[in-house]
Each structure stands twice: as C-alpha cells, then as structure tokens.
Amino acid sequence: MKLGIDVSTYYEELAAGVKYFIKGKEVDPLHEFLNNGVKYSRIRLWNNPFSLDGKPYLGGTTDMDNFIKLAKHMASLGYEIILDIHYSDFWADPGKQTLPKAWANLTFEELKKEVYKFTKETLERTKAEGIKLSHIQIGNEITNGFMWPLGRLFENGDKERTNYENFTSLLKEGIKVTRELMPETKIIIHLERSYDIKVYDEVFSNLKKYDVDYDFIGMSYYPYWHRSFDELFANVEFCKKKFNKEVIIAEVGYGFTMEDYIKNNNGQPQLKIDVNSGEYYVPYPLTKEGQKEFIKEFIKRCIEHNIDMAIYWEPIWIPGENICWASVEGQEYINEVGKPTRNEWANQCLFDYEGEATPAFFEYKI
Q: pTM to 2 decimals?
C-alpha cells in the first residue's frame, strides 16, 4: 500500500509563520512524512479563487500558480504528484459544486468545450513546467455530480437519480484530454459517502453504461459522517469485485481534540459535531491517543483489504494568522455567508495547535 498527504495549504501556512516540531525540535514536516514512507502529494486546483476585485478566497487560495509552485517543490523532495481538479473557483463537495464564475452563463455544449479547454491548458502548463502527474482526479467528491446545475445528479424519489448523460459527458471531456496529453497518468473518480454501497453501485454502474474511462475509484473516509470501518471496507470489496477497479482512500482524517484553539470561545467545539448526540460515528475518543488508535487501525485495515493508496487530508493545516477555511468573499461565492472565517480543520491535523507532532503522526507510516 502507498501513502499520501494533501497539504494544499502549505504556502499559506508558511506565510503565517507557522512552525512544526517533533519532540520540541523544529522540523520540516514534508521531510518527516517522507521518512514515514509517505510518497504521494495530492494538490487541489481551483479555477480562479479570487473575487472580482481580486481578493483571495483563502483555504490555500489554490490556483494554478499555487499548484505549480507546490508541485515543483514536492517533486523536488521526492513526492509523486496527484492533481485534484475541482472545476470550481472554490470548495467543491457533495453539498456544493459551484460553477466557475467565468462559466456561469454557458450552455451545456459551451461548458463541455470549456472543461476540455481548461483541462488541456492545465495539463499543457504542467508539462511545460516539467511536472509529471502520477494521478489526476476529474472532479472532487462528485457523489452528486459536479458543475451544478448542468452536471448535477438530481434526486428522483426512490428511483435512480437523473442527468447521468450530462454528468458523464462532462467527465469524458476531462478524461479525453488527459488520455491525449498524459496517457501514463492514472485517472481517479472520487466520491464521498464511502459507507453507501447503493450510491456507489448507481454511480459506477452508470459510468460503465456511458463508457467512462477511468482507473481508480476514490473514496473519502471521515468516520463521523461515513460510519464504521466494517461499512467502509464492505463497500471497498463490493466495488473491487463488481467494477474490477482498485480503490484509493482519497481523503481520510480524524480529530485529536474537541477543544477550540481560540481561547475563551464560550465552549464552541472546534469540529462542529456533537459527539454525544448519537448522530455522528466516533469510534475512538477525540484525543491524541484516540487519533493514534484510529490511524493505527485504519492502516491495518487498508493493508488487509489491499487498498492501493490512502491520503491524509491537510495534516499540517494548523492555526496561524489569516489561516481560515474561507474569506468573506469566498463564502459569498459558494453562498455560505455568515459562517465564522477561521480554521475549522485544525483539530484534525497530525500536528497539534502548537505545531507539535501528535502520536498519530508516528503511526501514519508504511
């Protein structure tokens, strides 16, 4: 099995003056992950993560320049590079897949052409900069489609969702140009809801029906929302058997505390889940020891089930000045205004709020 990390926010962390430590000694975390046997670096790409007046959306502000800079740096250290194209100007996930501002008023046929063109320009620049991609994701957590509304999968009561023809047509544009320009690069189709055999059966059966060409099934696994190891790996085995594809856990994470890094915050939890409600699955205490045990068991299960690769999502995204998931402008773009502009992921990292490696860091190894 192979291990990876997604540290797309790396340069925002450096700009904030954040430092990292192992047993009190300052370290470069990227070197330390390599020492653990981590060999892959997944980097997300947003089309244009800036407002019309040029203000950054933050959350890494992961535009093409950031991707090139980070990919070159990671490759120079010895990492293989995985490109994760969101086809959005900001966060894309099952609850939002916002069209890039420049594509907002296009017809479907025009959108197809822009997907091909954007992917082509991205890969051409990547090649020109001397960057080799081991894998590419066409879309991010596209369980409900992407580039809404034109590529959205629409609920249809108890029946199969609709609009697969449009959804798969858009996927094919990104895949086609990847095969043309980078035939050695492996293509990942990435969903979340990794416990849900029914939804994976529906999506990947339709990809087969519409003759979509890809190499790996990607899954996100955060147990709070995606349930138990047993349910995850039952789905893994189902997908491997039915679709004859290897599986990558494209995102995984687990918390080491529920205490906020912002002092005197009136008891507001850092990750917005109520661990006592019964609504969320919490297999281990959200403590440093609990995070360690989660990672230890996760790696063990992945090896047992022949997972091709697992990628820890943003393990170094710790608190710092102006480190947050979204600026006000970013919130406006995805229509999620009024939320705190802060780092809501800091308690899921493999370094604590002071930058010290958590015990789980030493278990994230191969």
A: 0.96
